[in-house]
Amino acid sequence: MAEGVFVVLSDPTAKKEVAFHDWYPSFFESFLAMPGFRSGRRFMFAKKQVDLRAVQAQLALFELSDVEAARNAVAEKYGVKTSKEELRLDEAIDSVTIMPTFYENIGERQIAPDAPEVPAEEQSIMLSLLAVSLSSQPTFAEAYGERLGELLKVPGALSGDLYQLSKHQIQNPLYPFIAVYRVGDMEQLLTQWPAPGTTWRSIAAMREKDPSVRPDGRLAGLKNRDFLYEPYVKPDPPPPPAPKAAPAKKEA
Q1: Domain coordinates in residue numbering, the chain
Q2: In contact, 32 and 39? CB cutoff 8 Å
Q3: What stretches of the chain show up as alpha helix (H) in DSSP?
Q4: Sign of dihedral through CA atoms 165, 167, 169, 171?
Q5: Model confidence at 201: pLDDT above 60
Q6: 181 in Cβ contact with 144 (< 8 Å)
Q7: Disulfide engineering: 62 pairs with which of 6, 123, 149, 234, CB 3.0-4.6 Å?
Q8: What is the pLDDT of residues 57-114, one digit of tens each?
Q9: Which residues contact 51 (CB under 8 A, 6 or more apart)?
Q10: For residue 125, which of 163, 81, 74 has the smallest C-alpha distance?
Q11: How many Cα atoms within 13 Å fall on the side-chain side of residue 245?
Q12: What dotted CATH number matches 4-231?
């Protein structure tokens, strides 16, 4: 019985953003009622990043007591029998960009030196999506453990966990490993977090230089990525459209 996490990266369907934010709470709560789920939190893409390349805007991160039991419950609830099928979800969520992935724990959580006490509901997440070749995977966990410890010396970091891909999935996964860093101070963290080799000023610039970015800015290829997510806050609804001006009266 392996412990782990269920990571759900998602976007609203275009022009259905309001419906997405109204519907998602019931979707989120449905997982917490399933076997194998221990707890969960919602996050949204932070405005400030170390890597401006686009990724899904919404993150749900669930702690699992039993990865296999959780996977089977999700598959039964949302009508998935194999990893090649799409989840049967509301039309408000983009079924193309959603990435629901199960990961299993590797080792113990590492705590940052002199990490302050920050309430869980105030913590942000730095999510590292780690692309690792098949030949390197057997030794990767030990090698990355040292890097994880070094990154926890960055001011603002609280703790870090490394996870490996579980064999129990509901969708074909992309990244064989992830690291989840809990963050107490985003501004402080961003001052010293390692920057990517290239900074991107716009999605147009991304597409010219990085073939892993699709025309809509989403990821299409495997590269290591670090993305910062902050606690979710439901956005205000858009203002109602301005009333149409009354037609001018015709002169008699």
Answers
A1: 4-231
A2: yes
A3: 17-32, 67-77, 137-151, 186-192, 203-209
A4: positive
A5: no
A6: no
A7: 6
A8: 999 999 999 999 999 999 988 866 655 556 788 999 998 889 999 999 998 999 999 8
A9: 195, 196, 200, 225, 226, 227
A10: 163
A11: 3
A12: 3.30.70.100
Please tell me the distance from the alpha carbon of residue 34 to that of residue 170, in angstroms, as a whole number.
15
CB-count burial class (<10 Å; 0-12, 13-18, 19+) for 28: middle
Q: Which residue has the higher pLDDT, 31 or 217?
A: 31
pTM of the model: 0.84
Q: Which residue's structure tokens are 């399933």? A: 34
Burial (CB < 10 A; 0-12, 13-18, 19+), residue 204, is exposed
- Per the model's pLDDT, the better-predicted residue between 242 and 134 turns out to be 134
- Count of beta carbons in the 10 Å neighbourhood of residue 245: 6
CA distances, 75 to each of 170, 172, 232 (Å): 6, 13, 26
Q: Which amino acid is at 238?
A: P
Q: Is 168 helix (H, G, I), strand (E, B) or coil?
A: coil
Please, are residues 11 and 93 in contact by the beta-carbon 8 Å criterion? yes
Least Cα distance to 186 among 146, 157, 227, 161 occurs for 157
Structure tokens of 208?
């010219």
How far, in whole angstroms, is CA 48 from its chain's centroid?
Answer: 15
Q: What are phi and psi of 239, to 5 degrees?
A: -65, 150
- 54 neighbors 219 (Cβ within 8 angstroms): yes
